[in-house]
Amino acid sequence: MLAFFKNFFEKHSLDCYAAIRLSDCHIERPYLLERAGISDGTAVLIAVPYYSAAADDPKRNISAYAVPRDYHGFFKELFAELIPALEQAFPEHKFAGFADHSPIAEVEAAAKAGLGIIGKNHLLITEKYSSYIFLGEVITDAHIPCKTLEKSFCEDCGACISACPMGEIGICLSALTQKKGELSKEEEATIFRYGSAWGCDLCQEVCPHTQAAKDAGTLYSPIPYFNEATIPVLTLERLNQMDDESFSSRAYAWRGRPTIERNLRLLETLKGGNS
Ligand code: SF4
Ligand code: SF4
Questions:
Q1: Which of 43, 79, 219, 230 is most buried per CB count within 10 Å?
Q2: Which ligand has the shortest distance to the CA of 178?
Q3: Closest CA to 151 of 59, 251, 26
Q4: Are 77 and 86 in contact (CB under 8 A)?
């Protein structure tokens, strides 16, 4: 069965995947497994690289993951093709695809499956793409031969902790850009100071593993989905040009237009005021 996954993933430019026994995973949402009718078996984890060349734009004002279209769309398309193909090839088994809202602790499972190490920033760090990956998995009741490793951690260089503004501003910058409603003057000033309309990549940017992946030339996603329809610099004008369909395909859509619109307005207004 792993050969089937290998062939499928190769066709989709996915080269970072590994299997782990479900019994070696920490189950966080058992009801999702119950719903899929699976109580034991294997999780096939996939690390999907998303960093695009467009994300290198020096004027980028949103997190790198939000530059392409929402990754949930990628997994939806992937699973819509993969799950029926698996069901057809292995009709005696059950399969379910998950991303983000997963029954298992994904980062820990991915590290134990051998996909990478766990960073001090709590992200999975892969050798090839650093932490600029999304995790997803297919869970099946089939028992695929695989090894479980001890999870390993990064070298704890502390660069991500030093770069993180949370201690100073009292809230994660990414969470602040996603906060709904009115912001205090201090919060507005923080968003302006960091120039972010959505998210924060500081802990990933400074990580030596990101530099190593850049130096090795492997950081960029080879997957077309993450290199198409990229918007590295978002403006109020660009946002207003988006119809509801294109807006809903962006990673910041789940918070609704008012939140990202407020951030952009404050970036543009304060910039105008300071110029
Ligand atoms: S996203 Fe930014 S602010 Fe939030 S924890 Fe990471 S570095 Fe700190
Ligand atoms: S910056 Fe250093 S401490 Fe932080 S995740 Fe990367 S290697 Fe680990």
A1: 43
A2: 1
A3: 26
A4: no
Tens of pLDDT, residues 79-105: 999 999 999 999 999 999 999 899 999
Q: Who contacts 135 (Cβ-Cβ below 8 Å, separation ≥6)?
A: 45, 46, 47, 48, 99, 102, 106, 107, 110, 124
pLDDT tens-digit readout, 26-73: 999 999 999 999 999 999 999 999 999 999 999 999 999 999 999 999
CB 212, CB 130: distance < 8 Å: yes
Q: Which amino acid is at 97?
A: G
207 lines ligand 2 (CB under 6 A): yes
Burial 192-213 (b: 16+ CB within 10 A, else e): bebebbbbbbbbbebbebbeeb
The pLDDT of 158-176, averaged and rounded, is 92
Total residues found in the chain within this entry: 275
